[in-house]
Amino acid sequence: MITEEQASQVVAEILGHYKKRKKNLIPLLQEVQTKLGYLPRKALREIAEFLDIPEIEVWGVATFYNQFRFVPLGKYHTMVCMGTACHLAGGRLILEALERELGIKVGETAKDGSFSLERVACIGCCMLAPVMVIRDRIYPKMTPFKVEEALIPYKQEVQNLNNIKKSKSK
Amino acid sequence: MTFEEIKSRARAEWEALQKNNYVLVSAATCGRAAGALDVVEAFNKELMRQGLEVPIIQVGCMGLCHAEPLVTICKAGSPRVVYPNVTPESVPRLVEGYVAGDDPCLELALGTLEGNGGEAVYIPELPRFEHELRLILRRCGFIDPEDINHYIANGGYSSLEKVSGMSPEKIVRELEKSGLRGRGGAGFPTHLKWELCCKAKSTPKYIICNADEGDPGAFMDRVILESDPHQVIEGMIIAGYVVGAEQGYIYVRAEYPLAIERVQIALKQAEELGFLGDNILSSGFGFHIEIAAGAGAFVSGEATALVAAIEGKRSEPRPRPPRLSEAGLWNKPTLLNNVKTFAYVPLIIERGADWFASIGTEGSKGTAVFTLAGKVANVGLTEVPMGTTLRELIYDIGGGIAKDKQFKAVQIGGPSGGCLPETLLDSPIDYDSLREAGSMMGSGGMIVMDEDNCMVDAARFFLDFSTKESCGKCTMCRLGTLQMLHILEDIRAGRGRVKDFDLLLALAEDVKAGSLCGLGKTAPNPVLTTLRYFRDEYEAHILEKRCPAGVCPELTVYYILPDKCDRACEHCVLTCPTEAVKGEKGEVKVIDQTKCSKCGTCLQVCPPEYNAVVKLSPVSLLPSSNLSKKGAKK
Question: What ipTM was assigned to the predicted interfaces of this complex?
Fold first, then answer.
């Protein structure tokens, strides 16, 4: 995790590349999110000051679009496609299986920061329905059973990391 | 450089490529999801191992999604052979067989692109290509989208050169004669839009390409931008010349990172060769294009909402008039068209309006691009003349319904469209016929549903989508759709009432009447069409508490037939994700209904020789023995 000052520094550097024009608001939010993984409250204020518009306006735009998030993502960000083709092929079951297996609800990040779960409208891979995505890897033609299988290596990794953390703190 | 010089250089590069062997790997987003990049890597490795220098070109999508990753091996003097579902394991065989040797590996091939392959399947003669007419898809999958010379060598940018000698008025008349209508869905005559923007007095003017393809299940705009982006850019430059604009924007949704990347490369190359810039091809006319990346809002596909998004505001639609052609981006005259509409423009200039108008039907000219997804055998992308029937599209091109199931409905136009039944399969596809049937052309996403799909559930799905994506500006769209959704959820859960029919119809009319933009005006369509064509399914849910397709979880149970269950087999026990199937080895298996998540895994894994798992609806069909044993909910 980066500190608040580091985040401010990143934001300041990004702001340096942009002109003070309102049309840059969305590209700014996008770049900050790409760099920081999410939009911290403070970054929104800094963008508002830079563009010289009320903070509430930045907040209004940021909350309007699905792309923006205000909590950090998990290490393994998991997306379930809920497009039409995936829905017809059982997307709901994949989402339920992930909620069950990860112990988090859609839109949440696990307390240890390992996984986060999100539903997306359509990633345009309809011939592979139903699909889920972990980080950038697309898992085609999923079933609840295959969800369990696919998660095994990630869970293992998380467990190893947590064990290391524990032994260090001891 | 003059255009002639640019062209001859591009041709030289293209011809040099044709003299050698090269390999095309379909690596659009869909191909990559199927593993195309692994295949590219395997080719590189294998070619290096064999000491061969053969270019591997990552091309776009040929539209045969079911066959991805798709590889085409091109050999000078021999037929080009296309291989479906290539894996890294099959690459060494292909390299040794056809890249290095003369064995076309026909046992692995889909077919050949040239006809002298002897016993090999000749791809253009496959049943699907009898109906297809590829115009804006004609280069997709055959040229390198990241090399402008491939586009130029195949006729690209010659229309731009041609129009520099034509008056804007004449180009508008050509478009009028061609009969081109907007491919974004509503079908507004393109020439009218262009003419209105031409006549607008205020300056500067703007051109916007709408690539905010939000319909779930539609991906043709993505494919075009990833496979052949320059035709869209060329169309936009021509539009800029006609209306007198100097700045254009391509609004691409952020969910399409590869499309954004390829358009960026294309723009850069077009600038370098002088097709974009302050003085295009030394004509004195200047035009620039920027990419605006969307941030994930379905409503941004609506023209006025899209303009707000580029301005950096919340993407909310506003009332029209004024039209965008009078007051669009930053209140200046703006011409906004869909990706495909712009892609048709260079083609119409090149081959003439009469040629274009000779394709299609009376009211809908040219071709239409569709994505076929859902329960068809061959999921993919296709381009057919307007007026082709739904049956031809689904059965001849799509290969019919997968797994020999029964066709139930086809959903056209995404959340704004409708579900059409089998009786309408022979109606032609064009703007007006579809509207008459209660659906719309939309962006061209087509989802096929079979007997295992529940129409109430499908309607609920689309309404759920519209509810979530409603921007909230209009009360009827924000709350009316939510009320409709609640009613559908009640019906799905067995709490439906007879008066819900009238309530849904009344609400649908109100939502249509009380919404500003297309999202709200069309959101009730999936409900209205399913009520119109599949009323019996609603009745089964409401009157008998039965889901005929066995989809709605509250109305369906899974049951293991005791006399069919092979006691020794444990497939269902081992795969059940919620551990709901009980029974020791040698015992009949029983599903604990309180734990069952209705996922159907047990039904899928039960070996076909037993077929012991069945779906029952209504729930009252469940034998009391199962109920009493495991205490399922009454």
Answer: 0.90
